[in-house]
Amino acid sequence: EVRLKALEALEGTEDTQVVRYVIKMLLEDIDERVRASACSFLAPVALKAELGELPESMAYQLETALRSTWENEAFGIECRRCALESLSYIGKPYVLEAIEKAYYSEIKEMKVCSLVGMGRSLDPCWIPIIIKELANPDQKMQLEAINACAELANETLVPYLLPLLEAP
Description:
Elements: H1 2-10, H2 16-28, H3 32-41, H4 43-50, H5 56-71, H6 77-87, H7 93-103, H8 108-121, H9 127-134, H10 139-152, H11 158-161
């Protein structure tokens, strides 16, 4: 609980020393919740890495930690899900493959997380899937599809969003 609260209190911190420590927590902490929280903490850092605003060595360390967490099936769903959501900011082909794998997973949490990743990736290749999910009766899937539309900010999505303005 203390480590979780500490991560929460440090949210938004860009200090490289803190980021390095959070990466270490992700890789070494014994508590699955702490590792998942560390993954979420690292999402804006991953965006900075993609934008070239991090030292290359730190960007590499961050990407490697998130990727290994996503790929390690021994980790719990929550941790892997958070890792993929953070990793989705990084524009590399293996990330798109990971998002696709999550979308076609039988595990609902992975499907939901894939929509987060689709939006964060900013790749228009996901537009047909996002449009399909806007009509999903599952509210979590539909809400994440709406969020993905917001992330993509693609005008072709507007006609699909307008009817949702009147949804209950």
